[in-house]
Amino acid sequence: MTTTVTMREQMIQTVSDLFARDERLALVLAEISRDLFKDVLQRYPQRAVNVGIMEQTMIGVAAGLALEGFIPVAHSITPFLVERPFEQLKDDFCYQRLGGNFISTGASYDYGTEGMTHHGTGDVQILCSLPGMQIVVPGSASEFDRLFRAAYANGAPTYYRMSTSENRNEQPVSFGKLLVIREGSRATVIAVGPMLDRVLTATKDMDVTVLYCTTVAPFDRDTLRAHAVSSGIIIVEPYYEGVLVPVVSAALEDRPTRIKSIGVPHEVLSHYGTLEQHDAALGLDEQGIRERIGAFLGI
Hints:
This protein is of the alpha/beta class. The chain has 12 helices and 12 strands.
């Protein structure tokens, strides 16, 4: 099925629908998407609040709501949700083992024309350092809806990474599971979230297994072990490259393994530009991915 709404539009619809169904749900905003959530803010003032441009306060208020038995949702642009209040995510949620949902928009450089202050390339990397943090990277609007509904009330702190970059078609994804898209013998390619379409195009004539990952943490090591039929593992990620290398390596620690990571390089992106311009410059378009996979496989 082809996606007809954006991830952000779907997020508004999903959260609004669940608000009417589940009185435990609470919403905390820090100005971003205030107008999009106008109906929720007006209809449920007792459990929906906009704290203004105070992201650390947003996370603290969300934690207070969690302590009172609510299931909080906090939402903002990626660097304002993850990097600015990182200490609150660590101390207020992970250290206290509280459940909550943190939904970002704009990753990795959807706001590339605004410069690096609005980039979100390091979000998944730093959140992987937090014990108990679950990380979801959907590849389409409908996948966000499916994954959020499956996990929002599971009692864990969970990060949902939204972007304007989406795959053309939805996949029957499940929370915490890798999806087997195609099987081959030469190597195993793990495509994360919105990178799936590019990987499928880049490898269309290659004899490789393609696994689709929408839950980065907890990572599905069992499916990887069952379908990694060769020593070559290629990870294609939409954030800083290398994030999944440790968990993939640990999952296959009893096997000889070569791992290639393809993602955003650890560089200061000093140029301003669109999403497409950044992808092309960084070798993350279809041609760039194909060339890097081919070089790794020697073809």
